[in-house]
Amino acid sequence: MKALVTGGNGFLGRHIVAALRSVGAAVRVFDRHPRQDDSDIEQVTGDLLTSRSLESAFEGVDVLVHLAASLQGKSDEMIHNMVEGSRQLLRAMARTTTRRIVLASSFSVYNWSNVGRSLSEEDETLSETTMSGYDRYARAKVLQEKLTRDFAREHGFTLTVLRPAVIWGQSVWGEFLLGKRAGPIQTVVAPSAQIRLVYVENAADAFVLAAQRTTGGELVLNVIDDPQLTTWQYAKVVQRQLGGFRLPLPYPVGWNGAKFASLLLGRSPRLPYFLQPQLVEALHKPVTWSNRRLREYLGWTPRFTFDQALARTELRYG
Fold first, then answer.
1. Could you report the per-residue pLDDT of 214-232, keeping only the tens digit for each?
2. Structural domains of the chain sorted by starting position, each given as residue range(s) with its CATH number in brackets
C-alpha cells in the first residue's frame, strides 16, 4: 500500500507517517513545509491552491490521507484556503487511479447546541444555516467534510471520515479545552466533566487502520480515547507543564454567563470565545461518549492509556 499524506509534516501527520511506515506502507508527503529531518520520506512541497503538481502526486498511490488544514489568516481566507484547496486536490485525484480517501475531520463539526448527554456519530452536524455562531475552524471543517463526502459519493470512492477529539502529545496539551488562560490563572470550565481527548499515537493508529480499509462506501467515526480523566485532573497535568494556578468554573456558570453576554452584546465572532455560548458549548459541554464504532468497524483499540501516554510524553518532553 502507498499513501499520499497531505499535511504529513504537522503534529498529527508526522505520527501518522511513522505509523504507516511501521506497517510496511510506502508514504509520500505533500506539505507546504519540507521536513526538518534527514529521513528518506518521499516529499512533495507545495500548496494545494496553487501547485501544478497535484495530479502527479497521486502517481502509484492507493489511498489519500487528507490532513492538510489552514489554521492561519482571516476567517474568510482560512475557510477559502481549506475548502478550495481540498477541491483542487479532489479534482486532481479524480483524474488518477486512486480510489480511497481518509479525511481528518473534527469534533468541531457537531452542532453542540443539539447534542444531548451523550455524543455519537449520529448526532447532527452544523449546516450552513447553523454554523454562523461557531469559529472559523469549525465552519471550514464542516464545509470541507461536506465537499469530500459529496465528491466520494459522486465518484463511488471509499471514504472514511475520522473526527478526532482534541489531540494531545509531546508539548501539545490542548489547554484551550480547559478554559480561558489569563496570565498564571487557568480557568477550568466543567471541572468534574470527563475531558474529550485522544493521544496522538492512538489517533495515528486509527488513521492507519482507516487507510487499510478497502470495503466500499462511506464510514464516519469519532476518534477518542476511553474516558479516563476529569477536566480538573487534566488541568493539573497541564499546570505541571505550563505552570500557573487552576480556577474551577462550573459549566452552568460559564454557559449562562456567555448566554447573558450574547443577549447584552449581540452575537459577534469578534467577542472572546467565553462570551459566545455556542463556543462554550463546543469546548466545554459535559457529555459522555463511546468509541464503540471505531473499535467495531476498524478493530481499533487505544494502544496507550493516559498514564502510559503521559510517561512517553514526559520522557520526550524532558
1. 988 999 999 999 999 999 9
2. 2-317 (3.40.50.720)
